[in-house]
């Protein structure tokens, strides 16, 4: 673990000391080396239990795919931000890279933590760099309101978790996952324990986000700069799913009766947010609402607590992270050329950017879960386990799948097909940097078709 964490920490002085001319290439190369080195964690996927490096940081088959995804995303964020940060003053460029690096440090320590309290502290620490990214480098004046929504939704959900963890420590005498995961399940019954369960889950359900407490997400996504949208969609939402999986193993007896309303709400959210996507005019808002829809399936898969549900949730989290991040990058390339996120004003781009249309096509198909992509594998496993839990879920999941296909095709057709509007006479051609960026998103997704056990080893 330290062989990745220490080079990531060293990226902070690199960002401040690199010559201005070589700032972006140097940090990009450094982060790419870290991302490549992180792939070595995947060697331990066949082992059950923890692969411990020290008493505070360790990896297992649940945290490893999420750790690799976090490391893989930093060079992609640097690559995506390079163009729109070029006109900023030098110090702000350096600060921007430092914020992205600090986010990666917090994420590595959150996913690798063996102490629940350390996980909680790192879970909360990711708020600070993300909030600065949204409020300082967001596109419009609404960014301040988006930052307030993001901060207070997350904090309001997280404070009950702090109380719940304190009570857990009083009752068990330890907060080490290494001990709690293999100890006897807690004997939970009564109203106080139900409130305790709710306290444990609320922070993660807000972070996912569950339909009903999701309003911060579209605002934060739409107002954030490209790197903020990428890290939010690809990794920060997955912190909620990871926390739920870790905590539910300790809350087992109570979950069966407490999870019913949340599963229903999550599946209802799949349909409602999918329907909202069908009538969106803002491209980034559409992609943001589609994230809420996909995370609804993940919440359902986790809460029914079957091996298939957990495995499907983990696969869908990784696949969705790569897909939605790629879609936000594509939306950003459109925005940099047309200076609008309104889809009707930036349509018919296939005629002038044909290769970019190919990337749009592959990303849209991944978003609607085309076989044999991992997105479909995750969705099918979750839907099958939900079907086994209750026959009635087929109505909600089936309708949600159809709506997902509808808005994914709608997004592709509106942005790419048709006649180019008259107000877009001269569009800048695409750059190799942008094609490399999308390739590095979609290549891992396509390679996972050949070796899916890298992301499903935990519950299999």
From TrEMBL:
<dbReference type="InterPro" id="IPR000260">
    <property type="entry name" value="NADH4_N"/>
</dbReference>
<dbReference type="GO" id="GO:0031966">
    <property type="term" value="C:mitochondrial membrane"/>
</dbReference>
<comment type="similarity">
    <text>Belongs to the complex I subunit 4 family.</text>
</comment>
<keyword id="KW-0496">Mitochondrion</keyword>
<feature type="transmembrane region" description="Helical">
    <location>
        <begin position="286"/>
        <end position="304"/>
    </location>
</feature>
<dbReference type="GO" id="GO:0042773">
    <property type="term" value="P:ATP synthesis coupled electron transport"/>
</dbReference>
<feature type="transmembrane region" description="Helical">
    <location>
        <begin position="62"/>
        <end position="81"/>
    </location>
</feature>
<feature type="domain" description="NADH:quinone oxidoreductase/Mrp antiporter transmembrane">
    <location>
        <begin position="113"/>
        <end position="403"/>
    </location>
</feature>
<dbReference type="GO" id="GO:0048039">
    <property type="term" value="F:ubiquinone binding"/>
</dbReference>
<dbReference type="GO" id="GO:0008137">
    <property type="term" value="F:NADH dehydrogenase (ubiquinone) activity"/>
</dbReference>
<protein>
    <recommendedName>
        <fullName>NADH-ubiquinone oxidoreductase chain 4</fullName>
        <ecNumber>7.1.1.2</ecNumber>
    </recommendedName>
</protein>
<keyword id="KW-1278">Translocase</keyword>
<keyword id="KW-0679">Respiratory chain</keyword>
<dbReference type="InterPro" id="IPR001750">
    <property type="entry name" value="ND/Mrp_TM"/>
</dbReference>
<keyword id="KW-0249">Electron transport</keyword>
<keyword id="KW-0472">Membrane</keyword>
<dbReference type="Pfam" id="PF01059">
    <property type="entry name" value="Oxidored_q5_N"/>
</dbReference>
<keyword id="KW-0732">Signal</keyword>
<feature type="transmembrane region" description="Helical">
    <location>
        <begin position="352"/>
        <end position="370"/>
    </location>
</feature>
<dbReference type="GO" id="GO:0003954">
    <property type="term" value="F:NADH dehydrogenase activity"/>
</dbReference>
<dbReference type="GO" id="GO:0015990">
    <property type="term" value="P:electron transport coupled proton transport"/>
</dbReference>
<dbReference type="Pfam" id="PF00361">
    <property type="entry name" value="Proton_antipo_M"/>
</dbReference>
<keyword id="KW-1133">Transmembrane helix</keyword>
<feature type="transmembrane region" description="Helical">
    <location>
        <begin position="93"/>
        <end position="111"/>
    </location>
</feature>
<dbReference type="InterPro" id="IPR003918">
    <property type="entry name" value="NADH_UbQ_OxRdtase"/>
</dbReference>
<keyword id="KW-0830">Ubiquinone</keyword>
<feature type="transmembrane region" description="Helical">
    <location>
        <begin position="229"/>
        <end position="248"/>
    </location>
</feature>
<feature type="signal peptide">
    <location>
        <begin position="1"/>
        <end position="17"/>
    </location>
</feature>
<feature type="transmembrane region" description="Helical">
    <location>
        <begin position="390"/>
        <end position="415"/>
    </location>
</feature>
<keyword id="KW-0813">Transport</keyword>
<feature type="transmembrane region" description="Helical">
    <location>
        <begin position="195"/>
        <end position="217"/>
    </location>
</feature>
<comment type="function">
    <text>Core subunit of the mitochondrial membrane respiratory chain NADH dehydrogenase (Complex I) which catalyzes electron transfer from NADH through the respiratory chain, using ubiquinone as an electron acceptor. Essential for the catalytic activity and assembly of complex I.</text>
</comment>
<keyword id="KW-0520">NAD</keyword>
<feature type="transmembrane region" description="Helical">
    <location>
        <begin position="260"/>
        <end position="279"/>
    </location>
</feature>
<feature type="transmembrane region" description="Helical">
    <location>
        <begin position="150"/>
        <end position="183"/>
    </location>
</feature>
<feature type="domain" description="NADH:ubiquinone oxidoreductase chain 4 N-terminal">
    <location>
        <begin position="1"/>
        <end position="110"/>
    </location>
</feature>
<feature type="transmembrane region" description="Helical">
    <location>
        <begin position="117"/>
        <end position="138"/>
    </location>
</feature>
<feature type="transmembrane region" description="Helical">
    <location>
        <begin position="310"/>
        <end position="331"/>
    </location>
</feature>
<dbReference type="InterPro" id="IPR010227">
    <property type="entry name" value="NADH_Q_OxRdtase_chainM/4"/>
</dbReference>
<keyword id="KW-0812">Transmembrane</keyword>
